[in-house]
């Protein structure tokens, strides 16, 4: 039921809509690293701002910290962004993300290719899967500099590259379901409530004693068998 938070995009505030429309044919890049990374280290800020200054696209960047000295007029810094609504905007061309699950599914929902820069935990595995599907390019933090960031953005946006088409196919598969993720989540929550915990869906492991659940009996048997075997060998050759 991943993606239950995804929804059709809503109209943007007037000022943000004007910024999006001002991008012309080049479109807009959305950059956000989720709630845990509202601000990056200073050197990473300067790298990102310098790379964006080289691009013809406009950039909406979720950033709650000091303004980089290299930021230019094509980049809009905001403490908070309506991420789902921005990803669903027709001017949005690329999503730069850390690889968090919510952002990934919102991008897939709206069919926006990604540039992933994983930072921690499951983000590394998530981005490997995105790359394998051909819907994102992955840039390691250790390799991040002005040149690599600029070239990675250009590569994903290149019409000759398959990222956009691959994302269109993945997004189509995601939407082709008999029931939407939120409706599915609501149904199963109500199902469990109606059937007072839905005990019939629980696995048999709930009925197993703790030593069987953790295979303590099997480990004890194997240990005893091996110990007896080694003891017999020792006595035979003594």
UniProtKB/TrEMBL annotation:
GO cellular component, one term: membrane
Catalytic activity: glucuronate acceptor + UDP-alpha-D-glucuronate = acceptor beta-D-glucuronoside + UDP + H(+)
Protein localization: Membrane
Keyword Ubl conjugation on entry: no
One Gene Ontology term of the molecular function aspect: glucuronosyltransferase activity
Keywords: Glycosyltransferase, Membrane, Transferase, Transmembrane, Transmembrane helix
EC code: 2.4.1.17
Subcellular location, principal: membrane
Annotated membrane topology: Single-pass membrane protein
TM region positions: 211-230
Keyword Lipoprotein: no
PROSITE patterns linked: UDPGT
Record-stated family: Belongs to the UDP-glycosyltransferase family.
Protein name according to UniProt: UDP-glucuronosyltransferase
Organism listed in the record: Clarias magur
Gene this chain is encoded by: ugt5e1
């Amino acid at each position: 039921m991943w993606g239950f938070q995804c929804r059709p995009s809503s109209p943007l505030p007037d000022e943000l809509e004007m910024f999006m429309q001002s991008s012309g044919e080049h479109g807009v890049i959305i950059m956000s690293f989720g709630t845990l990374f509202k601000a990056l280290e200073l050197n990473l800020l300067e790298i990102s701002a310098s790379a964006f200054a080289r691009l013809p696209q406009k950039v909406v960047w979720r950033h709650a910290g000091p303004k980089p000295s290299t930021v230019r007029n094509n980049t809009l810094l905001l403490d908070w962004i309506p991420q789902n609504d921005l990803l669903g905007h027709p001017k949005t061309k690329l999503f730069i993300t850390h690889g968090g699950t919510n952002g990934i599914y919102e991008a897939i929902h709206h069919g926006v290719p990604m540039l992933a820069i994983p930072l921690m935990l499951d983000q590394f595995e998530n981005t490997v899967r995105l790359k394998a599907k051909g819907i994102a390019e992955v840039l390691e933090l250790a390799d991040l500099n002005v040149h690599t960031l600029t070239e990675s953005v250009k590569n994903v946006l290149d019409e000759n590259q398959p990222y956009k088409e691959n994302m269109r196919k993945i997004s189509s598969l995601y939407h082709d379901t008999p029931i939407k993720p939120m409706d599915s989540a609501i149904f199963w929550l109500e199902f469990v409530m109606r059937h007072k915990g839905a005990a019939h869906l629980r696995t048999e492991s709930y009925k197993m004693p703790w030593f069987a659940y953790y295979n303590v009996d099997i480990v004890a048997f194997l240990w005893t068998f091996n110990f007896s075997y080694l003891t017999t060998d020792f006595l035979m050759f003594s």
